[in-house]
Amino acid sequence: MRFLLLELLLLATPFVVYRFYLKYVIRKKAEKGLEWSEAPLTWLMIAGLSLAILGMLAWGMIGSHSGKGPYTPAALEDGQVTPGSIGETPEDAK
User: Fold this and answer.
1) pLDDT score of 81
2) Is position 67 within any domain?
């Protein structure tokens, strides 16, 4: 859930920045009728999606990982399936 909220926040950031730009920087034009209908929506969407993609990449590279250690895949031993695990290998458990 936290990941989804972060991505939505990153996607919305350019739109929020543009709104503040309309309100504070070009107040005179906004008073004359510059509205969202004249907004550069294509560039805002490109900027928002770029931030969202960069956020996903950063999350994947520096985010916390729940599993530590090597992955041991499931195996068939003596007719029994041993489940896969993350962490210590079966040789370490002995």
Assistant:
1) 92
2) no
Q: How many residues does the chain have?
A: 94
* pLDDT value for 65: 59
Among 57, 45, 59, 60, which Cα is nearest to 11's? 45
pLDDT tens, residue by residue, 6-61: 888 888 888 888 888 777 766 666 566 655 566 677 888 888 888 888 888 887 77
φ, ψ dihedrals at 12, nearest 5°? -85, -15
- CA gap 86, 64 in Å, rounded: 15
Domain span at residue 37 reads: 2-62
pTM of full prediction above 0.85: no
Phi, psi of 76 (to 5 degrees): -105, 110
List phi, psi (to 5°) of 55. -65, -40
Count of domains for the chain = 1
- Which of these, 1, 19, 24, 11, lies nearest to 55 by C-alpha position? 11
